[in-house]
Design brief:
There is one protein chain. This protein is α/β, with parallel strands linked by helices. The chain has a domain of 136 residues: Rossmann fold (3-Layer(aba) Sandwich), CATH 3.40.50. 53% of the residues lie in helices and 12% in strands. It is built from nine helices and five strands. A five-stranded parallel beta sheet has the order 2-3-1-4-5, sandwiched between helices. It binds adenosine monophosphate. The site of adenosine monophosphate has 17 residues, from helix 2 and helix 3.
């Protein structure tokens, strides 16, 4: 199973991706997590990406496409993967099409999680308040100012992917305004039932 989750920052892509990864025994590939790891490793490329991320802008297509191209070849992706936060531009989507084709792979579905901007801002503000209350470190880009730029980047650069995948007949959309469980149920209803975990890895 190979899936893409599309949606604005704060739509719940990460949460839903983790659930899907567990249900289908596939890996979650979050370019945001990979870039944050590179940033905290302090490599020159990682530090450059950290500046771009802190501004709420998008890291260049070349960098994220190279990261994903290397990652999908790892053995743990053989059973499938769920892309969370990638692709984010039409250029990335075209590069993904090319790299899947080269490997003889295809996407099973592209799922858009639809949430209004007002709720996204409220969710991120809640996340900041809860993490601060627990004394946890905040993400450099989790603040109202940067969130506005992340939303603007989504509308300008990522939202066109909805039409891109609709045009290819691959898009399915779910209402992301409900609870985590409600959104999970809507996403699962779009997909074939997962093979029981006891059968995972069996032949046939
Ligand atoms: P996320 O964790 O998905 O919200 O991503 C956090 C930040 O990482 C984004 O605001 C971008 O700066 C950067 N980023 C993550 N994925 C991508 C991508 N596919 N293309 C460009 N930038 C990305």
């Amino acid at each position: 199973m190979r899936l893409i989750l599309l949606g604005p920052p704060g739509a719940g892509k990460g949460t839903q991706a983790r659930r899907l990864a567990e249900n289908f025994n596939i890996v979650q590939l979050s370019t945001g997590d990979m870039l944050r790891e590179a940033a905290s490793a302090g490599t020159p490329a990682g530090r450059k990406a950290a500046d771009v991320m802190a501004r709420g802008e998008l890291v260049s297509d070349d960098i994220v496409v190279a990261i994903i191209a290397e990652r999908v070849d790892q053995p743990d992706c053989a059973n499938g993967f769920i892309l969370d936060g990638f692709p984010r531009t039409v250029g990335q989507a075209e590069a993904l099409d090319g790299l899947l084709k080269e490997r003889g792979l295809a996407l099973d579905a592209v799922i858009e999680i639809k949430v209004d901007d007002g709720l996204l801002i409220q969710r991120i503000e809640n996340r900041i308040a809860e993490m601060s209350a627990r004394g946890e470190p905040l993400r450099a880009d989790d603040n109202p100012e940067t969130l506005k730029r992340r939303l603007a980047a989504y509308h300008a650069q990522t939202a066109p992917l909805v039409d891109y995948y609709r045009g290819k007949g691959q898009l399915a959309s779910v209402d992301g305004m409900g609870s985590i469980d409600e959104v999970s149920a809507a996403v699962m209803a779009l997909l074939p039932p997962p093979v029981g975990r006891q059968q995972a890895g069996s032949v046939g």
